Amino acid sequence: MFLNTLSGRFLILTVVFVMLAEVLIFVPSVARFRQDYLVARLERAQIAALAVLADDMIDETLERELLSTAGVYNVVLVRDQSRQLMLSSPIPSPVDATYDMRDPGPLELIVDAFACLMSPGDKVIRVIGAPVRHAGQLIEVTMPAAPLRAAMIEYGLRILVLSAVISIITAFFLFLAVRRVLVRPIARVVEAMTRYAEAPEDARRIIEPSASVVELRQAEEALRALQTQLTAALRQKRRLAQLGEAVAKVSHDLRNMLTTAQLLADRIERSADPSVARAAPKLVGSISRAVSLCESTLAFGRAEEPPPSLQRLSLAQLVSEVIDSEALAMSDGARVSFIDDVPAGMQIRADPEQLYRVLDNLVRNARQAIEAAGVPGEVRISAREDEREWIISVSDTGPGLPERARDKLFTPFEGGTRKDGTGLGLAIAMELVRGHGGRLELAETGPGGTTFVIRLPKSIVALEAAAE
């Protein structure tokens, strides 16, 4: 579990990278150790050779002691262009390799060092070097390779242990530093988010930025701004929900009252009094609009629309019903023509009742926009399809949508384009289309008219997900 934490992983990475750095240091260090070892043997051999030069009459016992002290089998010294065997003893095996230590390159030293480590056994090597203090032109010794390899392994193990200790100590202190500088502030942010999630409407739970690290402080400030906006939005939603519940109750009772008033207005409309007969249609229209407003508010105030009952249907037939309904609702003197441009055989998969409501909302808005302009116009409903979706367009030749209405076109109670409108029609239509897994879009609007596009997916998966 610890290894899955930020602290644990950082600790492991620190150890790994410190060990890697130590390995990069270890390679030239071992090569350097081998060079120093061989140079030391050459210097010892030179001292032994000088002892021989000082006294030619040394006995065999002293000669063996000098060779043992130098750690070599024999010593050859080149002086005054002559090669002299200064000290000698039996060599147990032929010379396996020769190394010149007079001017070796770094890469050569590294390669030779690892070749020595990888070559076990009691081999004999020849080492050539330059005598110190210009005591000759060249000194050459033969020596066993096993002691050199053992010394290199011992040195390498010491370096390894030292590297491990350094890695652990470094990782420990870095662990403490990271935990203090990064992990604790991150944990504090997570704790603040968890505490805020328990009661997001409580403004006291909004985080107060306190991190000293610039990036973490920016994250805390961004979180505070997000929490502040969310808290304000939740409070507004709660107030709107309470207001919506109250409006729904009022609308329900008001609708019942207005229904009775509408019946009475119908009777008044049949009165023989000319003044009453003239006022009655206006009264009936006002009451009808009030009833419609109440019904729209109640419909939108429901918790959610029921999932669509998807079935195959004839789009041309549904569009024809919408056009007939709107033609009957058209006011006297209005010069609005409806054009049905839907292919006769087009079959789509949708909820007929919900799609009717969507089209009816769009066509009614288009008709009312043309009537409000007081000029002749037309409303066209067209449809096409491709491999992925059915595309239904509702366009008109009206004056276009005002700028203020475009920004909040699908927002309830805010996207209305008429003075007496509620802005619920397009919001409900958008919700119904989304329930089908589709999209309702404003394709274009301007002085030449407005076009809305409905896109319904053909994918069964998308439709089933929408229904759920």
From TrEMBL:
> Which parts of the chain span the membrane according to its record?
6-27, 159-178
Q: Give an example GO molecular function.
A: phosphorelay sensor kinase activity
- One Pfam match, by short name? HATPase_c
> Which Gene3D superfamilies does the UniProt record give?
1.10.287.130, Histidine kinase-like ATPase, C-terminal domain (3.30.565.10)
> Does the keyword section mention Cytoplasm?
no
Provide the reaction this enzyme catalyses. ATP + protein L-histidine = ADP + protein N-phospho-L-histidine
- Subcellular compartments: Membrane
Q: What is its main location?
A: membrane
**Descriptive protein name:** histidine kinase
Give the organism, scientific name: Meinhardsimonia xiamenensis
